[in-house]
Amino acid sequence: MMKGRKAIITGVSKGIGLETVNLLLAEGVTVAGWGRTKPELAHENFHFVKVDVSKYEEVLAAYRQTVDLIGEDIHILINNAGYGVMGSIEEMSVEDWKGMFDVNVHGLMYCTKSVVPAMKRMDEGHIINVVSLAGLNGLKNMSGYVATKHAVTGFGHSMMLELRDWGIKVTNVYPGSVNTNFFDDIAAIEANENMMRPQDIAQAIVNVINTHPNLLTGDIELRPLRPKGKPQR
Fold it and tell me: 221 - beta bridge partners?
């Protein structure tokens, strides 16, 4: 079902983004990978586009470059770029707060805005927002990150209602803890083997893209089975 399709994925340097690129390439999809750092990946159907999604002018330029590389008929957008900063509200800097909103929310909107007109002309498309369970719940000392992810939840739900009549699917994916570099800058939490693997999140994303054209999956929650490991009995 996916061979010959074209996709844009943001945040492709590592983790969930890179794993999703690899799975889509294996499915025969041509992928434009957007990010600030080029991954160590060589494939005839992979095209890296350097961009900081928090800057609207760079997103516009990245989209134009992508169209030049693979054409305007982009069938899939995966909004994966994002980051979090931990800290109590009185300790969190205004710069960190604004930075998370610029990438996690504004950047996601910029990327979505860029692909929707062509998707409407094609009368098809699939936009996937990699959110987080933080988009559904509160987290102590993560108020800034949680606020951005709640914003993405509302944006995705609204876009689903806005775009479904144009044949465009919008899916929010809510992973729990994933063993990635996300936790490198969060001192209170250390990535570990009890967390989900990034390739599992990537597989769930590919699975939802690969559904029947008339099936719209709005939300997917993904959680580790035993987040604290197997209990001692």
Answer: 174
Which CATH number do you get for residue 55? 3.40.50.720
Write down the catalytic residue from 56, 63, 110, 145: 145
Instruction: Identify the CA nearest to 149 among candidates 103, 198, 88, 184.
Output: 103
Coil, strand or helix: which one is 30? strand
Residue 229 lies in a domain: no
Provide the number of structural domains found in the chain: 1
Pick from 100, 185, 93: nearest CA to 134: 100
145 included as an active-site residue: yes
Please name every residue paired with 220 in a beta bridge, in sequence order, or none if there are none.
Answer: 173
Look at residue 227 in the predicted model and tell me its pLDDT: 81
Beta strand pairing status for 30-35 and 6-10?
A: parallel
User: Which residue range(s) make up the domain with 169?
Assistant: 6-222
Between CA 206 and CA 49 the distance in angstroms is 21
Query: Nearest-CA neighbor of 16 among 142, 174, 138?
Result: 174
13 φ, ψ (degrees, to nearest 5): -70, -25
- Helix then strand then coil, % of the chain, to nearest 5: 45, 15, 40
- pTM given for the model: 0.93
| Pick from 146, 136, 121, 140: nearest CA to 173 | 136
pLDDT tens digits for 141-191? 999 999 999 999 999 999 999 999 999 999 999 999 888 666 556 655 666
Ranges in the chain, pLDDT < 50: none
Between CA 39 and CA 220 the distance in angstroms is 27
The confidence score (pLDDT) of residue 182 equals 62
Question: Does the residue 190 lie in any domain?
Answer: yes
